[in-house]
Amino acid sequence: MPASSPSIPSLAAKPAARAPRRDGRVLHKGQQTKAAIIEAALGLATHIGLEGLSIGALADVTGMSKSGVFAHFGSREELQISVVREYHQRFEQEVFYPAMAEERGLPRLRAMFAHWMQRTSIEIDSGCIYISGAVEFDDRQGPVRDALAGSVLTWMAAMKRGIQQCKECGQLQADVDEDQMLFEIHGLILALHYEARFLKTPGSLGRATTGFDNILARYAA
Length: 221
Prior knowledge:
The chain is mostly helical. The protein has one domain: Tetracycline Repressor, domain 2. Helices cover 69% and strands 0% of the residues. The protein is elongated. The N and C termini lie far apart (46 Å). It holds the Pfam family TetR_N. GO terms for molecular function: DNA binding.
């Protein structure tokens, strides 16, 4: 897919049973090489950001020639978009699909946040592309920003749907502002990254969990 038309798969449109398998796939040699480059690029991006990625840097890390790396992507922009797609797919596998196995309503919403927290706790050391990318591309236009923003908005839509289902199940107050509740939940994750990764504040994970419990208690039916 050309870089000018990035595509992010929709969490909202995929039932858990159709989750794509990341193991057991038979890849051709060219696909294996490209997958290895994306793996290396994702590792770099989590530490130095998407803007730090370059064909030359990937050539050094993978031991390939610049022309060899370039042949798989065609441009630095397409490389960045490929990394965003890969990150999004892993986020689905680790956060979204496991939560879909839980009962509809609060159990599922709690699971979505719990898996999100679990991934966040790992990224406190490695870095989060969603958050670092927002800093890098917040004032820019283009396909990389579109792919990144589309990925985040897809996850936000899935979380909002989880809140709506809680209301439908009678577990939240009927007049709960779904956007407000989502804003507060998302704010916990952003605050956690700032407190734990930047300020190194002890107990940040526990405070984020307590904050989520407080939000549910405040909006409970």
